[in-house]
């Protein structure tokens, strides 16, 4: 049974691609055959974050237009055996995608016995974002503790509830997960940043994880290696916890308290 | 910075509370537009027009919310009337009504029955 998960947010720059890369890698690491699809036609970046940018030959639009086969289009990850990347086209625009075309791709992926299809949504609420969420069984709503991000997340939740295939076909609703990224516990403690409680209260969907603001996220994208593979970093560990929760395990939330600083660091840090 | 923060009152700039309060109002407002029935915006406009006939209020002073409870829906109207302001100019509606009154007509008669 293939499960389709969209990583979405409305707002740009909140960490959708970082999250898609880490969630897909985490699921593959747990033994699930996983593909991660970049829906950001014209502005592809997932290939860079996954570190396979030099291996892109065909892309999603070629596949939709039946100019290339699934086998030709999928890029096999070099680190994990059961992880595949389906890159977006860099030259076409978003109008190249159609629901019928994506439906054919989804059907082929299901026939290839993928366990998980992760859809990395473009920012915004235009066609590309709507395509990315249309086939979703579950949604990971990526939100920064920041007013515009929270508002846009609420907007995208409305779209999930009215424009996904599940809503149009009157099936069970898309299962929603909240993932808070770039969380800074010490700013929360000082009252300068919305807290986890605030955001969960406002958006009213279950919390999948809290990814703390961490320099390792930038280091990982620089290196083209999903941050979940950086097991020493807090962000990597937080993504690994999120995978456990996504798979139904209960795991207490971590990284919500500021790290204890020594007296000198507090004084001068 | 750390030095001042350590000794100073770091809670003084608690902007997160403001952020949450603003978002609560905004999101509730945007959700009504999204989940509510199609007629809600038109109903709101009509109610607003009726109120404006008598009191001058801002468009934002009226909130219309439909809340679903267990066995019924509750339509909640929230109208913030302005504080008693000293009017320097009568409204156009007030002028029209006064003119009709002076002509010896009831202000509403003119619409229903021709003289």
Describe this structure in words.
The complex is a heterodimer of chains A (269) and B (115). Chain A is 41% helix and 16% strand. The radius of gyration of chain A is 18 Å and the shape is globular. Chain A starts with a strand and ends with a helix. Chain A is built from 13 helices and eight strands. Chain B has a two-stranded antiparallel ribbon with strand order 1-2. The N and C termini of chain B lie far apart (79 Å). Chain A binds chain B through residues 146-147, 150-151, 154-155, 158, 162, 188, 190-195, 198, 201-202, 265-269, and chain B through 2-3, 6, 10-11, 13-17, 19-20, 22-24, 26-27, 30-31, 34-35.
Short description:
By secondary structure, chain A is of the alpha/beta class.
Topology (SSEs and partners):
The complex is a heterodimer of chains A (269) and B (115).
Chain A: E1 3-8, H1 16-29, E2 34-38, H2 46-50, H3 60-64, H4 70-73, E3 75-76, E4 83-86, H5 99-111, E5 116-120, H6 127-134, E6 138-143, H7 147-163, H8 165-168, E7 175-183, H9 185-189, H10 196-203, E8 207-212, H11 215-223, H12 234-246, H13 263-268
Chain B: H1 2-7, H2 15-35, H3 40-54, E1 62-68, E2 73-79, H4 92-102, H5 109-112
Antiparallel strand pairs in B: 1-2
Task: Please describe the structure with a list of short key phrases separated by commas or semicolons.
heterodimer, A: 269 residues, alpha/beta, 8-stranded mixed β-sheet, 13 helices, 8 strands, B: 115 residues, alpha+beta, 5 helices, 2 strands
């Amino acid at each position: 049974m293939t499960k389709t998960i969209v990583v979405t947010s409305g707002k740009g720059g909140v960490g959708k691609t970082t999250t898609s890369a880490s969630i897909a890698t985490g699921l593959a690491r747990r033994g699930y055959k996983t593909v991660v699809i970049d829906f950001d036609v014209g502005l592809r970046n997932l290939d860079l974050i996954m570190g396979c940018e030099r291996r892109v030959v065909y892309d999603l639009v070629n596949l939709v237009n039946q100019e290339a086969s699934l086998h030709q289009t999928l890029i096999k990850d070099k680190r994990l055996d059961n992880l595949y990347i389906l890159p977006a086209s860099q030259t076409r625009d978003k109008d190249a995608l159609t629901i019928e075309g994506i439906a054919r791709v989804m059907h082929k992926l299901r026939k290839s016995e993928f366990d998980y299809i992760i859809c990395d949504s473009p920012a915004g609420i235009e066609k590309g974002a709507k395509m990315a969420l249309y086939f979703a069984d579950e949604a990971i709503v990526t939100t920064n503790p920041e007013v515009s991000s929270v508002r846009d997340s609420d907007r995208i939740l409305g779209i999930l509830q009215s424009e996904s295939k599940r809503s149009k076909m009157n099936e069970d609703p898309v299962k929603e997960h909240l993932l808070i990224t770039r969380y800074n516990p010490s700013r929360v403690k000082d009252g300068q940043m919305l807290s986890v409680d605030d955001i969960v209260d406002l958006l009213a969907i279950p919390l999948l994880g809290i990814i703390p603001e961490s320099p390792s996220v930038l280091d990982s994208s620089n290196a083209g290696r999903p941050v979940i593979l950086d097991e020493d970093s807090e962000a990597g560990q937080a993504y690994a916890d999120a995978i456990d929760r996504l798979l139904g395990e209960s795991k207490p939330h971590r990284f919500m308290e500021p790290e204890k600083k020594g007296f000198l660091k507090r004084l001068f840090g | 910075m750390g030095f001042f923060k350590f000794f100073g009152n770091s809670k003084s700039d608690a902007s997160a509370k403001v952020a949450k309060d603003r978002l609560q109002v905004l999101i509730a407002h945007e959700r009504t537009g999204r989940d509510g029935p199609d007629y809600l915006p038109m109903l709101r406009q009509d109610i607003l027009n009726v109120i404006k006939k008598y009191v001058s209020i801002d468009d934002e002073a009226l909130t219309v919310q439909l809340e679903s409870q267990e066995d019924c829906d509750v339509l909640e109207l929230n109208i913030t009337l302005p504080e008693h302001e000293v009017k320097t100019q009568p409204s156009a509606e007030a002028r029209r009504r006064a003119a009709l009154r002076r002509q010896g007509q009831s202000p509403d008669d003119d619409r229903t029955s021709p003289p």
